Amino acid sequence: MNLETIVKELNLDVRCAPENLKNNVTGGYTGDLLSDVIANSREGYIWITRQVHQNIVAVASLKDHAGIILINSCEPTKETLEKAIQEKIPIMVSDLPAFELTGKIYNLLGKKD
Amino acid sequence: MKIIVSETENTLYRDSFEIEGGNFNKAGIVSTSIKSLLKQMGIAAEVVRKCAIVCYESEINVVSYARKGVVNLTVNPETVLIEVVDEGPGIPNIDQAMQQGYSTADQKIREMGFGAGMGLHNIKSYSDAFNISSELGKGTRLLMTITINNKK
Predict the structure, then answer these.
(1) If we measure between CA atoms, which residue out of B121, B134, B20 comes closest to residue B71?
(2) How far apart are CA A100 and CA A111, in angstroms?
(3) DSSP 8-state code for residue A2
(4) Is it the case that residue A66 has pLDDT exceeding 80?
(5) Alpha carbon of A48: minimum distance to chain B alpha carbons (Å)
(6) Best CA proximity match to B13, nearest among B70, B59, B81
């Protein structure tokens, strides 16, 4: 399943790198501790987090994540957006809390394309 | 601090990268460069993944605690060596620092999602060989060896 489908299904607001919404999503990881995300997430995952500072872009880029979704309508900082555009990492915003958003994405990914 | 990294005559690549202490705006840049380099060299994705993890965690430690640091990358046919040497306060009790969950990070660092006491633990578990030494008031040296599995 690509990011575009997830964006449409969950009504996410795309903040940057719309050209990369074709990225294939192979799974997901939810977390705000960067070391936890670095150690346990995989390439192609969508990362769900409450962190909005620019270091999330380095983590997503290093782990080849498909994109980052910020929960609870949190907005990325200006520096985060600039870096994400540079690194071509799509950042999306959802008004849902982490638990609900994760559940919905988990169910979507469980469906056949 | 003495630097000993095993370099063989077969060494494929060797380079050093500087890390600026305290600058979270630049944190991750060195790890990202090293990851792209290793990828370009055609090293297996799983090996690159391990290198990226240990390199990033080390880089964050230097940014969080030290004045400055350097990453010395050596790629040999069968191993990737990542040595991180910093000029910083050093670690008083290494055994304690290695424990998962132990951290001396301040509130500012924790708010960003760092300082969970997982860094050194992650570094050790993703390295095939790991060595740490530290001198109080001088700095800390980490040496990580990642084996390149050519069988695949």
Answers:
(1) B20
(2) 17
(3) B
(4) yes
(5) 13
(6) B81
Domain B13-147: which CATH class? alpha beta
Q: What is the ipTM of this complex?
A: 0.85
The model's confidence at residue A21, banded by pLDDT at 50, 70 and 90, is very high
Task: Give dist(CA B52, CA B30) in Å, integer.
Answer: 10
pLDDT tens-digit series, residues B43-89: 999 999 999 999 999 999 999 999 999 999 999 999 999 999 999 99
Q: Taking the domains of chain B in order of start, what are their residue ranges?
A: 13-147
3-state helix, strand, coil in chain B (%, to 5): 35, 25, 40
Instruction: Give the least confident one: A36-40, A108-112, B33-37.
Output: A108-112
d(CA A110, CA A66): 17
Range of the domain at A104: 3-110
Report the predicted TM-score, pTM, of the whole model to 2 decimal places: 0.90
Say what the pLDDT of residue B17 is.
98
Question: By C-alpha distance, which of B22, B47, B44 is closest to B144?
Answer: B47
* B121 DSSP 8-state letter: H
| Nearest residue of chain B to residue A34 (CA atoms) | B113
CB atoms near residue A82 (< 10 Å):
14
The count of structural domains within chain A is 1
Nearest by CB to residue B112, choosing from A39, A43, A51, is A51
Give the helix/strand (H/E) hosting B49. helix B45-65
Give the closest of B56, B112, B119 to A62, CB-based: B56
Looking at residue A54, which CATH number applies to its domain? Answer: 3.40.1390.20
Q: Is the pLDDT of residue A99 over 90?
A: yes
Count other Cβ atoms within 10 Å, centred on residue A54: 22
Question: Mutate which of B32, B103, B124 to test chain A, going by most A C-beta atoms within 10 A?
Answer: B32
